[in-house]
Every structure is written in structure tokens, then in C-alpha cells.
């Protein structure tokens, strides 16, 4: 089974927090989304829709609506991630149970993130203002124009999403502190539940549930991010969540591996076509699947970095 077809589709939904493609079918047809597999540690909310998300029962009662900036535990986690230096390890589990491990190191404006799953590795790196996206599965890189990667914790706080309690599991709440925030945009609802250690306040796990408002009985799709480690600090000395001190590992800030990859954006149309055809053979992406996804030779000559990696992660490799 080509398991990552569904995983890639769900990641596309995560990238827009229900503003666009959450209602798409999570199978082969979902390959229309261009940037599925990237940034699965975070989600983006359309700024124009952020105010729509502020409606709560508090507003109805005349009381000020509580938002993420009022949440004690999410703000504590947010402050950790605003440190000048931090390390984060977490595991992203898609709705079908497939895992991707994420490792991120931030040192001021420098950052490194690698995402590893059963197919392989991809990520981004920025050192002294020289930034790249890379994909070791496809063997390619490109110059990165996006900023520092963020977590869902940062997105929820910065968008001031409203506090809710519609989805909190009382059994979970007995052992962990739970804070819930909800985004509503158009016909979609995204409910995010954050679970924190009752003693340390450190985030343990957070889930994202996507639902379609009009569909009665819609159980939605749920993603889970399990936090393995957070270390934060400044001056090269980091404090782990167990109170122990550690030195920042700067060995990850080495961009020499980029030279071993192909500069995808520097390829001519003919070079892109030949490169893609070779990658598809290796990854076992069939001609029928490419046709189904709407890619003929002419379109492959103009294919983007996101489209190529999406096709490979959506259709490639039998797992």
C-alpha cells in the first residue's frame, strides 16, 4: 500500500487550518495540493479570517472572550519557543497512524529542521542568512524564502485563537492540564487540544482535529504531535525540561551537504523533465498516477519543488 498518499493529503489540510482543502478526499485525488508534506510542525491561519475565529460564548454573554494569550500553559510553552536558542523534538502522527519525527535546532536567526519518516528525510537550514529547503528523498534543494519554521503553539498564540472546551477528554484532563483552542473559517472547524504536564507545565502532546461544519456526524481527521524534548536558553547553555543543562549542538549548522544535492530551481525545463522521470522510476510513481494527478510531459517541464516532492511522497514507494 502506498501509505503516504493519505498522509500527504492531511498535511495539506494542516497547512491552511481549514481555510481551503480540509474537505478534499484523502486518497490519490488529493495530489492536487502542491505543498502537502512540508511544515507539518505548524499550521498557517489566513490573517483575513483570524477575526472570524474570535466568536465565543463569552462574547454572547457580554464577557470578554478568552483567547490563547490568556492561557497559562500555552503561553509558558510559547515563551520557551521564543528563547534565542532552543531544541525541539516531536513526533507527528497522521490520521492513519503513520509517524514523522521532527528535530529542530534554533540559534538566533540560524535554524535547522529535519523531518524523518519511513520514506526518508527532508527539511530546511539557515546559516548566516544562507537558507535552503532540502529533500534527500528526491535529492534536491532550493533557496529558501520562507522564515523560521514555527510550531502550532506559536501560530495559535499569535493568531489569538479563542479558548473552547468542546473536545476535552475528561480522562486525559485527570492526569494532564488541557487547553483547547478553535479556529472557525468558512465551512471548516479546527479544534486544537494541548496537553501539559501538571507539575512542570511542559507540553506533552497536542492534537489537531479537522471537521466540516455542514456534514452531520462528521468525525473529522485527527493529527497528533507528541513532544519528545524541549530545551531552551541563551549563550549556548540550554535548560532541558528535567532541569538539566546542556550545550547547544551547533554541528547541525553545516550546509556542506547541500552541494551533494541537485539545484532544482536552477534546472532548465528539459532538465526538470529528465530528472523527474528518473525520480519517478526510482520511487515507483506510475504513468497512470501522473495522469491522474494531471501531469503530462509539458507540465513536468514546469513542475515546482513542492509539486515534485508532493508527487513522490503521495504516490511513491510501497510501504
Quick structural summary:
This is Lipoprotein. By secondary structure, the chain is α+β, with helices and mostly antiparallel strands. It has helices spanning 4-16, 47-50, 57-60, 72-81, 152-158, 170-175, 269-283, 287-292, 297-300, 305-315; strands at residues 85-93, 99-107, 110-116, 121-127, 130-135, 140-143, 163-164, 176-185, 188-197, 203-212, 221-234, 237-240, 245-247, 262-263.
Name the CATH superfamily classification.
Lipoprotein localisation LolA/LolB/LppX
Radius of gyration: 20 Å
| Helical run tally | 10
What are the secondary-structure elements, in order, as H or E?
A: HHHHEEEEEEHEHEEEEEEEHHHH
Which short descriptors sum up this protein?
alpha+beta, 14-stranded mixed β-sheet, 14 strands, globular, disordered N terminus, Lipoprotein
How would you sum up this structure, described in words?
This protein has a single domain, classed as outer membrane lipoprotein receptor (LolB), chain A (Clam), CATH 2.50.20.10. It contains 10 helices and 14 strands. It has helices spanning 4-16, 47-50, 57-60, 72-81, 152-158, 170-175, 269-283, 287-292, 297-300, 305-315; strands at residues 85-93, 99-107, 110-116, 121-127, 130-135, 140-143, 163-164, 176-185, 188-197, 203-212, 221-234, 237-240, 245-247, 262-263. The longest helix is centred in the C-terminal third of the chain and has 15 residues, at 269-283. The radius of gyration is 20 Å and the shape is globular. Residues 25-38 have a biased composition (Basic and acidic residues). Residues 1-22 form the signal peptide. Residues 42-53 have a biased composition (Low complexity).
